[in-house]
């Protein structure tokens, strides 16, 4: 599966950015591929960032959802950056009998543990700007990404 991801991402970058000195592509459940004509290894990339939101708003108790998103993702930020060689963590928290909140935190593996934590915490701090009281959202950057949804967002 991953070799297909690498081949597909490489091909897509060549097609979309044929004359670029740098490009980045994220594929959910697959990989992140980045190239640049400057050394970026081990440096937090705060320039290449975007957010995505689930357009559906939370109907019941949006304040609780916002608090639980911060709580869950802060814990995942700690887990992903704390001597975790994959720099990746997923988790969930039960909101009520019928509702589960799912989250993900991930860094590129060229970062130090300290820089991974910094990157994730900045991304988490940007979620209220895009995704306040929403059923899901994500901040994706050139060095890390965080996300949450009210449905499972990663395969098992």
TrEMBL record:
The keyword Cell inner membrane does not apply. Its main location: secreted. Keywords: Repeat, Secreted, Signal. Coiled coil: none annotated. GO terms for cellular component: extracellular region. Gene3D superfamilies: Gnk2 domain, C-X8-C-X2-C motif. It is found in: Secreted. The keyword Repeat applies. Residues 46-153 form the Gnk2-homologous domain. Pfam families: Stress-antifung. Belongs to the cysteine-rich repeat secretory protein family. This is Cysteine-rich repeat secretory protein 38-like. It comes from Prunus avium (Cherry). The lineage of its organism: Eukaryota, Viridiplantae, Streptophyta, Embryophyta, Tracheophyta.
